[in-house]
Amino acid sequence: MTDDAELLRLSLARRDYLRHPLLLAEILGLHALMRLTSGPARRAVGRAIGELKVAVCDRRARARLAVAAGRAPHRLNIGCGENLRPGWLNIDLDPRADLRLDIRRPLPFREGSCAEIYSEHVLEHLAYPGEVEQVLRDWWRVLAPGGTLSVGVPDTVYPLESYVNEVDDYFAWCRTQPWNQPWIETRLDQINFHFRQQALGFGQDHLYAYDVETLAARLTSAGFVDIAQRPYDPARDSRAYTLYLDARKPGRPGGARQTE
């Protein structure tokens, strides 16, 4: 478990906060408060720290875009983490990203200005109902007619079928992954982690689980068509045991419109 001193060091390492002294003071105060709390109260404080960090990153990125001249991005990699795609605009809160945005807010691009969106292991971190529908509708908005969306989420079928059928392949794979937790001892522990992805001290990180039917329903409600499942492609994707769906915005492809 990361202790409070390490959490504070990581927070201060993000130089963005030094440009916002009031927010920095709030973050320091919240870290101090975390030392005095435990359980649900500690998790609530941890989430508040996270939201402040998101607000700082998002504010700076949107301000930079507002004064920058140039064309709209042709392809968006939303929630890129460390998986940066050359030739794409890589969006994440990770400091390695091209643009650090809170994707729960509308993207700062004009309607129909992008040709392609790729997003992997993002939607499961958003609340449903509420955030997921808004985010997908906004992605639909910025795509040009005929533009494509490829989205990947943890495939809930694998762990459930493996548990019911007492097949260990999936659980053995989980034990080799860097995100596996030391407290996971049993197969049901792993199921619980799949649904919640608990972060010690901060609470639940996964907010919704998906299978093909459920994810396709969300995409359909947002206006996407030609929704189809595709297999994991190691040249394109970063993680096995992931559910990938491709979809399209209705209309004839005519290239993304450019902004001034």
Task: Please state how the strands of the largest beta sheet are arranged side by side.
Answer: 2-1-3-4-6-5
The oligomeric status of these chains comes to single chain
Shape: globular
Radius of gyration: 20 Å
Number of helices: 8
Mind sketching the topology for me?
Blueprint: H1 4-13, H2 21-34, H3 39-67, E1 75-78, E2 89-91, E3 114-120, H4 131-142, E4 143-154, H5 157-164, H6 169-175, H7 187-196, H8 212-222, E5 225-230, E6 242-248
Parallel strand pairs: 1-2, 1-3, 3-4
Antiparallel strand pairs: 4-6, 5-6
Helix pairs in contact: 1-2, 2-3, 4-8
Characterization of the model:
The protein is an alpha/beta fold and 260 residues long. It is built from eight helices and six strands. Strands 2-1-3-4-6-5 form a six-stranded mixed beta sheet. Strand 3 (114-120), helix 4 (131-142) and strand 4 (143-154) form a beta-alpha-beta unit. The longest helix has 29 residues, at 39-67. The N and C termini lie far apart (48 Å). The model is unreliable at 1-12, 14-20, 66-70 and 255-260 (pLDDT under 50).
